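To fix ideas, we reproduce below one chain and its tokenised fold.
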Amino acid sequence: MAWQQATIEAESSVAEALADALMEAGALSAAIEDAFAGTEREEPIFGEPGEPVDRMWRQSRLIALFDEAVDVGLPIAAAANACRIAMPAYQVERIEEQDWVRMTQSQFEPIRISDRLFITPTWHVSPDPSAINLELDPGLAFGTGSHPTTRLCLQWLDENIQGGETVLDYGCGSGILAIAALKLGALRAVGVDIDPQAVRASVDNAAQNGVSAQFCLPDETPDLKADVVLANILANPLRLLGGLLASHVRPGGRIVLSGILAEQAEELSALYATWFDMDAPVFDEGWTRLSGIRREAA
């Protein structure tokens, strides 16, 4: 069996409506992406956790999938008519049937964090079975180790966990940081996330890795003073959560922050200097990791 894939250029102001109309007109799927993706004109769009993205790209591209027998121009014309726009330009290509599971899995190779720490999907053999391997498959929760923000935090854990620490991961996503901390020698790890689905994914991932960690929603966060508090989220929640995160770090304990764009580093570092003696920022592909040591309460 084969399919037809239509690539349709659209103004961003009508892209979502057009995607919905394409589905109503018989498309099997419809996705929106930056029309300039992969070029120098590509526009990163960032949204804070739990909040909608408040803008789209200036120019969008719709990718719609149709059955092999469909005259693609007809549903596109119907969708354009429903949105009261002119017939958009489009291109069609034939998509042959493939083993989609194998093709998707082939895109996720083991990730080397350091000489002793790897992230290995369950369908791969680890490049180094003697190393510390985090078995983690791509899923619905953020945090597979491929993104610079997660990688920066994992590198910090690899370099700083000595053994016996209590770790709090605020915004745990897939649970990868809490799991890594335990496999590196931490005594206790607690992960917190606003998304119940992320909490469930974290529990499953911890079981997959043979470690025992506690994962919960924010209202269930235990009252603890951790040796290490990690927050790999984004700048806006980090601004709002400074006092809360600081309250969970024992005097002399460490905080590790990521999900921060390079141009936001100075502002966030100054904010957290209220409670911490901050280290120099570390950068990776336009993202920043901040860390610091909790001062004694005045």
Observations:
- The domain at 107-294 is CATH 3.40.50.150 (Rossmann fold).
- Residues 12-24 form the longest helix (13 residues).
